[in-house]
């Protein structure tokens, strides 16, 4: 506070000078106080801005899943316009009918004939072939089969030594045969049933009563049988020219771990690891030398920028977040969002062969220059520090946004990896955590087997059944995925 004596008029020139110097000192103190208040105000404004952005986070402007959106956020989602077409089949569509099963494959045939006489008194001659064939499909009442293996013993009449027969190697050691083990594994990996639900299914449909521990041991046998095909998937994916990678949380008890995925067109490979660090990403990728499509996670930085493509839908969600900000930061975000959508459109038109390759690349180069200029303007912002830092970060990694221009096989999105992880996310919600190392090994293995079988068009259950039969009866698993000659089947 200023000295009260400064309010008194000076009597001499020296007193006036002294009073002026003291006043300047007070002014300096007030300036420092004002500058501190300004700094505190700017800090509070920044905190309020960050809190508002956090409250406005949703699946549209961040990596959060759609299930985490609030009721109001779900109501504000952009809805597709209601179709003017009526429900059901449209006029002129191709008719789909179930083909008739040949008579040789029908279990039972019941024939119906008209009466022998007509109402006019004449006789009716029956046609040699039926005019209508109507087939009814049903499932039989199922029951398990039991094979009892009896071991006899004997005694030597010479030395008195006791002998006992031994079971052949083709007899399983446990109480479950290969078909049952395959069914349990398939119910887990394909239909995401928990062990308790599998136990209930076996009772309700097959009148089989097994403990939870026995079902868990059956999964362990399936893990052993499918080990070689699982490793075949990993080797195959790492040899592909283009692959997708992503990761999601995995829980063992209360411990948070991670499920990693490496996906290509024909196969998907999963791996459970304790961390989300670079070493875990390196173990997933192995000797992979192709183009890798990912989000902006730094764990994949071992892959050179020249071989890495960033997911444009992730960038679009980030630009939506920036576009919602005020002042120049919001303008930069809206401009980046406009350019991102402009990149998607010619890509789709080129894939649909609506524009030729020369026009496509010319437009992309023009968009790339505008994208770079907009990021540079955002990197020079003075007020919105967060937008400035995000633009500076993207400038350093800008080349990874345009890797798809090097090879037409590189997509703009990482949807393939995200879709591959979706069955596990559903399974995690239904069954939650694993409880042992055995469970950590079973989940990625069975997901890899089922997902790969679906991608190449073969029956996942038949593949698992053959592998379990070879492992438990023949002693050697020889079945492998036919990546070179895929067959169409129901999985």
In percent, how helical is the residue content?
40-55%
Order of helices and strands: HHEEHHHHEEEHEEHHHHHHH
Look at the structure and give the mean pLDDT: 87
What is the makeup of the main sheet?
5 strands, mixed
Please count the helical segments.
14
Tell me the β content. 5-15%
What's this, in brief?
Residues 48-105 are annotated as: Disordered. By secondary structure, the chain is of the alpha/beta class.
Highlighted features:
7 strands, Transposase IS66 central domain-containing protein, DUF6444, disordered C terminus, elongated, single chain, two-stranded antiparallel sheet, alpha/beta, 14 helices, 491 residues
Textual characterization of the structure:
The chain is built from 14 helices and 7 strands. With 491 residues, it is an alpha/beta fold. Among the domains are: 178-241 and 249-305 and 414-474, no CATH class; 312-405, no CATH class. Helix 5 (212-225) crosses helix 14 and helix 10 crosses helix 11 (385-396). The longest helix is centred in the first third of the chain and has 43 residues, at 13-55. The radius of gyration is 35 Å and the shape is elongated. The chain starts with 12 loop residues before the first helix and ends in a 17-residue tail after the last helix.
Helix and strand layout, with pairings?
Blueprint: H1 13-55, H2 71-75, E1 153-155, E2 162-164, H3 178-189, H4 195-206, H5 212-225, H6 227-238, E3 242-252, E4 255-263, E5 268-273, H7 278-285, E6 291-294, E7 308-310, H8 312-323, H9 327-351, H10 357-379, H11 385-396, H12 415-431, H13 437-456, H14 460-474
Parallel strand pairs: 3-6, 6-7
Antiparallel strand pairs: 1-2, 3-4, 4-5
Helix pairs in contact: 3-5, 3-13, 3-14, 5-13, 5-14, 6-13, 8-9, 9-10, 10-11, 13-14
């Amino acid at each position: 506070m200023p000295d009260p004596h400064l309010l008194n008029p000076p009597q001499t020139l020296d007193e006036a000078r002294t009073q002026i110097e003291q006043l300047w000192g007070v002014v300096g103190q007030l300036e420092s106080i004002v500058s501190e208040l300004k700094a505190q105000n700017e800090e509070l404004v920044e905190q309020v801005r960050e809190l508002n952005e956090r409250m406005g986070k949703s699946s549209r402007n961040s990596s959060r899943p759609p299930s985490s959106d609030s009721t109001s956020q779900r109501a504000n989602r952009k809805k597709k316009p209601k179709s003017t077409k009526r429900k059901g089949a449209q006029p002129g569509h191709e008719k789909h009918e179930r083909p008739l099963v040949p008579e040789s494959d029908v279990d039972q045939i019941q024939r119906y004939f008209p009466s022998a006489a007509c109402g006019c008194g004449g006789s009716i001659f029956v046609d040699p072939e039926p005019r209508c064939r109507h087939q009814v499909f049903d499932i039989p009442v199922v029951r398990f089969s039991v094979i009892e293996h009896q071991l006899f013993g004997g005694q030597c009449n010479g030395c008195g030594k006791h002998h006992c027969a031994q079971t052949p190697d083709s007899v399983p050691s446990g109480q479950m045969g290969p078909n049952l083990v395959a069914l349990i594994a398939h119910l887990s990996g394909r239909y995401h049933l928990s062990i308790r639900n599998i136990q209930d299914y076996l009772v309700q449909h097959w009148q089989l009563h097994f403990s939870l521990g026995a079902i868990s041991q059956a999964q362990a046998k399936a893990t052993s049988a499918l080990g070689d095909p699982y490793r075949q998937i990993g080797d195959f994916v790492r040899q592909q020219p283009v692959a997708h990678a992503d990761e999601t949380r995995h829980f063992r008890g209360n411990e948070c771990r991670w499920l990693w995925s490496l996906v290509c067109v024909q196969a998907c490979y999963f791996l459970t690891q304790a961390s989300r660090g670079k070493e875990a990403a390196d173990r997933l990728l192995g000797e992979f030398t192709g183009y890798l499509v990912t989000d902006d996670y730094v764990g994949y930085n071992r892959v050179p920028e020249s071989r890495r493509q960033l997911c444009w839908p992730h960038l679009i969600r980030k630009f939506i977040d920036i576009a919602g900000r005020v002042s120049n930061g919001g303008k930069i975000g809206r401009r980046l969002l406009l350019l991102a959508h402009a990149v998607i459109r010619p890509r789709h038109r080129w894939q649909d062969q609506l524009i030729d390759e020369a026009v496509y690349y010319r437009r992309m180069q023009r968009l790339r220059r505008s994208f770079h200029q907009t990021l540079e303007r955002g990197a020079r912002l003075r007020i919105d520090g967060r937008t400035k830092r995000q633009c500076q970060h993207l400038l350093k990694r800008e080349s990874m946004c345009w890797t798809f221009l090097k090879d037409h096989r590189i997509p703009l999105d990482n949807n393939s990896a995200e879709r591959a992880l979706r069955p596990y996310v559903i399974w995690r919600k239904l069954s939650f955590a694993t409880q042992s190392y055995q469970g950590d090994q079973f989940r990625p293995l069975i997901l890899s087997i089922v997902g790969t079988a679906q991608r190449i068009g073969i029956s996942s259950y038949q593949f698992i059944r053959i592998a379990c039969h070879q492992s438990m009866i023949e002693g050697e698993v020889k079945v492998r995925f036919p990546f070179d000659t895929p067959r169409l089947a129901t999985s």
